[in-house]
């Protein structure tokens, strides 16, 4: 197994582990039972996850030493699921001297059985390597933690093609079951040379795990320039179920620039594998569609309100030069974003240095949130 690039977690989803015994690049800390679950259905994504299970009072952890650049800000994230009977779980990074650089506590369970996202930023200081760890001091009773999709990056959170807000399941947030938003559909300028590229605006559940087999249920509008350089706005839905992608599917709805759009995704209480997707053009009477879609692998462990450069569908696409998308009436499980620990997601066009990001803070009114995704020079 070759060494991971600087600042990169090796085997982040444990998919390269070939037995129940933890192997390189991962290692174990502490004397008690730990290992790899394979095809047991306990994973966040993929087929595998790490676990610790014990009834002792010992410290046990799953750890990895990662090479880093000195004096660099890194963003550390990972997903954990616990038995819920302890509050002494810790996720963090130690320096070469063994001292803790950064650490976050976990163990509290708000949504029983849900994975929780732990995320934090830290400066590597003079260290050329850090040891990442996820573990806990057991409570003297049978207890466990399942671990998956750990990631370490040296740029702001996000993969560069999403801009907006996300609410992840966490020690603070319950696992979201519903997300709604209203926005004004932006204009797309089509030119003979270097036409402005595609832009999707959507709401969805899931999609945050750093894995090719993550699930995502979304509905929104895709704006693009056709072959005749005429701008088109097409409502769509999409379901990614454990990495199996329907691709964008059209919704028969009249949409054009300047229209006020409303969209929501709700996970069914009666059948958690089913999702109710609704999209409506508030500017045109009668333009509303409600769809029910199935995603058995989706866990609804994050909610998103996003402006996206959809490179997944058009290789080489770029952000439009100017973006300004105002969102209003935003809720997650019926509450404004201020009720949650949120993630601010930022996109960037590398060749121009243009940054696409949401307002640094949301404004609330009447139990709803408002914010704008806009472009500016980084």
What's the topology here?
Elements: E1 27-29, E2 34-38, E3 48-54, E4 59-67, E5 73-82, E6 89-94, E7 100-106, E8 116-123, E9 129-137, E10 143-153, E11 162-168, E12 178-184, E13 199-206, E14 216-225, E15 231-241, E16 244-245, E17 249-250, E18 260-267, E19 274-281, E20 288-294, E21 302-308, E22 324-332, E23 343-345, E24 347-349, E25 354-358, E26 363-365, E27 368-377
Antiparallel strand pairs: 1-4, 2-3, 3-10, 4-9, 5-8, 5-10, 6-7, 6-9, 11-21, 11-23, 12-18, 12-22, 13-14, 13-21, 14-15, 15-16, 15-17, 18-19, 19-20, 22-27, 24-25, 25-27, 26-27
Description:
By secondary structure, the chain is mostly beta strands. Helix content is 0%, strand content 49%. The chain has strands spanning 27-29, 34-38, 48-54, 59-67, 73-82, 89-94, 100-106, 116-123, 129-137, 143-153, 162-168, 178-184, 199-206, 216-225, 231-241, 244-245, 249-250, 260-267, 274-281, 288-294, 302-308, 324-332, 343-345, 347-349, 354-358, 363-365, 368-377. Strands 12, 18, 19, 20, 22, 24, 25, 26 and 27 form a nine-stranded antiparallel β-sheet that branches. Strands 11, 13, 14, 15, 16, 17, 21 and 23 form an eight-stranded antiparallel β-sheet that branches. β19 (274-281) and β20 form a beta hairpin. The radius of gyration is 21 Å and the shape is globular. The relative contact order is 0.14. The model has no long low-confidence stretch (mean pLDDT 92).
